[in-house]
Write a structure and sequence with these properties.
alpha+beta; globular; 8 strands; about 260 residues; Arc Repressor Mutant, subunit A; 2 domains; six-stranded antiparallel beta sheet; Beta-Lactamase; two-stranded antiparallel ribbon
Length: about 260
């Protein structure tokens, strides 16, 4: 994972020097990414602010994406949103990814054994992407959906991934990345986040309370490929009615066992 490089503004499509690079394709993906993180449909003006593309350029890009079936335009408001066709991309990834397939029975067994919600997420640039989410209780609908992105530095799994990097690399990363407050309890001070990552490096797991979801407590351990963290295995419970010490004592060793089972030398 190249955290610092992912933040390099020289990666922007207008500055690409590779003759094989197609600016129009990159811009189309910027539109899709903007729509994917926005709640509800977006106007061309909103897309322009989010993507730094001009409205005339966006008119051509959205027309192409509508024709391709990945974006739809609301007739009354002239706003744009993603279509169900984008779900097919997630299905294609999950159904053909060998690591996701190998992890599934381990995660199912973990949920059945512990009786808590279980997830697996994978790092991508400065986010963790949920690949599997197995709910054990009737919680927030959004918290059951795969594909959701959580900032690397806020999620328990992300802090596990960051803990496998040299401390100096993590410091540089935290100095450059924008840290959003997902809840009123999210840590946004880089020094405090660094302390949590240091703690994870020492004890081998990360514990997060209410930072990504107001009522949730999460413990995570990294799955490794050599010296690189390739995924985070997490257990989640509602904070109400669950004691932190008892939660760690109950789930830590089973989560560690699964993360080891999914690690490769």
């Amino acid at each position: 994972m190249r955290m610092v490089e992912a933040l390099d503004t020289a990666q922007r499509d207008g500055e690409k020097q590779d003759p094989r690079f197609l600016t129009s394709v990159a811009r189309g993906f910027r539109v899709l990414e903007a729509l994917s993180v926005h709640y509800g449909a977006m106007s061309l003006t909103e897309l322009s602010r989010k993507t730094d593309l001009t409205v005339p350029t966006l008119q051509r890009l959205t027309a192409t994406l509508v024709e391709a079936g990945y974006v739809e335009k609301e007739p009354s408001s002239k706003r744009y949103g993603l279509t169900v066709k984008t779900v097919d991309l997630l299905f294609s990834y999950l159904s053909r990814n060998q690591f996701a397939e190998r992890a599934w029975p381990h995660l199912v067994h973990l949920r059945e054994t512990l009786g808590v919600s279980i997830s697996m997420s994978i790092p991508l640039q400065d986010s963790m992407i949920y690949v599997h989410r197995l709910a054990a209780y009737a919680g927030d609908f959004e918290n059951t959906l795969p594909g959701k992105k959580i900032p690397l530095c806020l999620s328990a799994a992300g802090r596990c991934v960051l803990s496998q990097q040299p401390r100096q690399v993590v410091e540089r990363y935290l100095a450059q990345v924008t840290i959003p407050a997902l809840t009123p309890f999210s840590l946004t001070d880089p020094a405090k986040i660094l302390a949590e990552i240091d703690l994870c490096r020492v004890r081998g797991y990360a514990l997060v309370k209410r930072e990504t979801s107001p009522g949730l407590m999460t413990i995570a351990c990294p799955a490794m490929r050599g010296k690189t963290a390739i995924a985070g295995i997490s257990a989640h419970v509602p904070l109400a009615g669950n004691d932190e010490e008892a939660f760690v004592a109950k789930v830590l060793q089973p989560v560690v066992s699964v993360s080891h089972a999914l690690s490769a030398g």
